[in-house]
Specification:
The chain has two helices and no strands. 87% of the residues lie in helices and 0% in strands. The protein has one domain. It is mainly α.
């Protein structure tokens, strides 16, 4: 992997993390707007779907964060080899 590719991939994953943060905040606000004790079947289904989506988005965000960490190390390694 060359330096430019690594930087492009890192930037893409950083944008994904930012996007997931926005979506997670929106989903959390939607969840906070629901009654604590759901009173209808629709409220129960909606709450379950939001919780499922939050869990899935957190997984995507965590994987992207790990990939950014690896790419930062890779970029640093490549830059150090270029300087030698």
């Amino acid at each position: 992997m060359d330096l430019e590719t690594a930087i492009d991939q890192r930037n893409g994953y950083l944008m994904l993390i930012n996007n997931m943060n926005i979506r997670l905040a929106y989903a959390q606000r939607a969840l906070d707007g629901l009654p604590t004790i759901p009173t209808t079947q629709h409220d129960i289904a909606l709450k379950n779907q939001i919780l499922k989506d939050l869990n899935q988005m957190n997984g995507v965000k965590n994987k992207a964060d790990g990939k950014v960490t690896l790419l930062r190390s890779r970029i640093e390694f490549i830059e150090n080899n270029i300087k030698k």
